[in-house]
Design a protein that fits this description.
It is built from 3 helices and 5 strands, in the order βααββαββ. By secondary structure, the chain is an alpha+beta fold. It has a 5-stranded antiparallel β-sheet, with helices on one face. Helix 1 packs antiparallel against helix 2 and helix 2 runs antiparallel to helix 3.
């Protein structure tokens, strides 16, 4: 006896991409745009998912404009949201040779270097991808 195929509800995948200047103001704008777009997609402001996504975008965008900045080149934010499945956050910059080290841990007196620890703690997974022809993308994913 065979079992009938289970019908699954279709999932609408939402995508967003926007370039921003490689400046602190651009990083703030990336975070605000991400939260606004998620709100438009039904993820309420101040919800757990919105807060987590905001922190991830803020950290990745700040790293991109601080460590991945090339004068005259922009950074890019990408979001891919499949409700109930996952949220993917991509932040791309133009410096492919400066890659974050996931194994690095800051010393107790270091003033920086804790941002990727935060990303690792909040995201289900994160990775660094090459961007063709130049640059890199730091991707953080949240399973929902």
């Amino acid at each position: 006896m065979t079992t009938p195929l289970a019908r699954k509800r279709p999932v609408t995948v939402r995508m967003f991409a926007q370039r921003f200047s490689s400046t602190p103001r651009g990083a703030r704008l990336a975070r605000r745009l991400a939260l606004h777009e998620l709100h438009q997609w039904g993820v309420a402001y101040d919800s757990e998912l919105s807060d987590t996504a905001g922190l991830l975008v803020a950290e990745l965008a700040a790293n991109a404009v601080t460590h991945g900045r090339v004068p005259g080149r922009e950074c890019e934010l990408g979001l891919l949201y499949a409700p109930g499945l996952h949220l993917r956050i991509d932040v791309t910059d133009a410096r492919g040779e400066r890659r974050p080290d996931p194994a690095a841990s800051p010393g107790p007196l270091d003033e920086g270097g804790r941002g990727l620890l935060l990303v690792g703690a909040l995201a289900t997974r994160w990775e660094v991808l090459d961007r063709v022809p130049v640059g890199k993308t730091v991707r953080a994913e949240l399973d929902l």
